[in-house]
Write a structure and sequence with these properties.
heterodimer, A: alpha/beta, six-stranded mixed β-sheet, four-stranded parallel β-sheet, B: alpha/beta, 8 helices, about 25% strand
Chain lengths: ~250, ~280
């Protein structure tokens, strides 16, 4: 649904088995912005059973799902989380019990996806820049890494993320606009991009130094090209680190 | 950390409205002018928090329409739109003369404030002499408890507890809240408190109720307590606010008008997308 993001939307839909998948949109991070909800339906209602949950208009009959959020969300094939402010979103989710419902959905195999705040939220830690200096934010923690988005869009973002990782933030993934990380369980399975030049990096500290390793990115535009990573920007570059699979926490 | 001296308890003001103001009364500025008149500054800085609505454009635009041509420096704080400000929340909140909280979901309001640690800043602002004002969710939030429809049907919800007692709002406009509140007070789930019609506001000085005012003839308020399991209800007679300078700051002098023009220009240049 993002700018140039239709390839990413197609990719996530390709992960679903159903002919007409059930897709539910959570626009919480935008404050349930009407224009975002409209954009979602425009994009997804032609091929999917599309619905959305609004946590701000639960009493106003605006067409969102209102009664049993758990039952509704747990019957989806895909839960699509919109962008916006990750802290506000997580706060509202906790107040409505959505954090627990989403954990259950993930364990059941429902695909979870989203851009920006809709990416940060799944990780244990995230870098969020909002009203002043960027700071680490605790996410839902399904993925035991940190995450930094808009890596190319904000000039200072890279230095800030490196500093945070050097200061003890978990190792994790920095992702440019148009690029998506596809995890199976807690393992990174594939990195895909809607832009020919999109990049993503594994970022980790050793001592006080930070190593940034480019990941192999598959451009989703035809023809499918697997672009080999560029050399590491910092010394100590090596092939993408295979990540030790961790069992899904019980 | 911005150092800010506390003011005496008698200079801490909270104005809680059962409904009304710019979001509900676009053609009746009486309550909003009264809010402005509570600030000690000649040209008060007023910050609108539309959090409870999810920062809807409609609320923000209504706020601008009401305040941007009045004697004040008006801005809003979004906790959703990115890149709205490079200032920290602390700087933004603590420099205000008035913080005005809009209506919407009280459950979301408090949860989101908590996620941003905003309630501590608001407490500090109040102690420092910033007037706290609001309607509906933005009024109940200052009390120990209220009645919200955040999840659909009306239910009891805890507030921040700056003021003792409970509050229920829209007593005339959304009558389904009142029985839930009365039952809560009767069975002790809620402390005693006030029920306000739309258009009625309570002014607290420190923790004492000082005035009950109204923008609408006929709108009312009541104080309800449970004594030995029985409800004791007192009707309060609000003062009807008057048009004109008595409750507002009076006519604008030229210097203030000039200052406002400068502020508007600066705001126009500094602002990217409205947020």
């Amino acid at each position: 649904m993002e700018k140039d993001g239709s390839l990413l939307d197609d990719y996530v839909l390709s992960l679903l088995g159903a002919a007409r998948p059930r897709v539910c949109f959570l626009p919480t991070a935008s404050g349930d912005a009407d224009h975002y909800v409209v954009r979602f339906y425009r994009r997804f209602s032609p091929g999917c059973e599309a619905s959305h949950v609004s946590l701000f208009r639960r009493d106003q009959g605006t067409g969102g799902v209102e009664d049993d959020l758990a039952t509704h969300l747990l019957s989806q094939d895909l839960i699509y989380v919109g962008g916006g402010n990750v802290l506000s979103m997580l706060g509202a989710w906790r107040a409505h019990g959505l954090d627990a419902i989403l954990r259950k959905a993930w364990r059941r195999g429902i695909v979870l996806c989203g851009p920006s705040a809709g990416s940060l939220c799944w990780f244990e830690q995230a870098l969020s820049a909002f009203h002043g200096a960027p700071r680490p934010v605790r996410g839902l923690g399904f993925l035991p890494y940190s995450n930094c988005v808009h890596y190319d869009a904000e000039p200072a973002r890279r230095a800030e993320y490196h500093r945070a990782v050097a200061d003890g933030m978990r190792p994790g993934y920095a992702v440019e606009d148009g690029v998506a990380l596809h995890f199976r369980g807690t393992c990174l399975e594939r990195v895909v991009s809607s832009r020919p030049d999109g990049s993503a990096f594994r970022v980790e500290a050793y001592g006080r130094r930070v190593r940034e390793t480019p990941l192999e990115v598959s451009y989703l535009g035809a023809p499918a090209i697997v672009r080999k990573p560029a050399p590491a920007r910092k010394r100590g570059g090596h092939a993408p680190t295979p990540h030790t699979p961790r069992p899904v926490p019980a | 950390m911005i150092e800010r001296a506390g003011v005496p308890v008698t200079e801490r003001l909270i104005f809680a409205m059962g409904g009304g103001g710019f979001t509900m009364e676009p053609n009746n500025p009486l309550l909003d002018d009264f809010v402005l008149s509570l600030a000690r500054a000649g040209e008060p800085r007023i910050l609108f928090l539309p959090t409870a609505s999810g920062d809807t454009t409609a609320q923000i635009n209504a706020f601008k329409a009401r305040f941007f041509d009045r004697t004040c420096v008006a801005e809003h704080l979004s906790l959703f739109r990115l890149r709205d400000s490079t200032r920290s929340l602390e700087e933004t909140v603590l420099e205000q003369d008035i913080v005005y909280v809009g209506g919407g979901s009280m459950r979301n309001l408090l949860a989101i404030w908590h996620a941003h640690e905003l309630e501590d800043l608001l407490l500090e602002a109040w102690r420092g002499g910033t007037v706290l004002a609001g309607l509906s969710a933005g009024a109940m939030c200052w009390f120990e408890a209220g009645v919200t429809r955040s999840s659909g049907p009306p239910e009891v919800i805890d507030g921040l507890g700056l003021l003792e007692g409970s509050l229920t709002v829209h007593a005339d406009g959304e009558p389904e809240r009142l029985p839930v509140w009365l039952a809560g007070v009767r069975d002790g789930a809620l402390p005693g408190g006030w029920a306000l019609d739309d258009g009625v506001g309570l002014l607290f000085r420190g923790e004492q109720l000082e005035r009950v005012v109204s923008s609408r003839p006929g709108a009312g308020a009541q104080r309800v307590d449970a004594i030995a399991g029985e409800l004791v209800r007192h009707r309060l007679e609000p003062e009807l606010l008057l048009d004109g300078p008595s409750d507002a700051l009076g006519g604008l002098d030229e210097a203030v008008q000039e200052l406002r023009r400068v502020h508007r220009m600066r705001r126009g240049m500094g602002r990217g997308r409205a947020g």
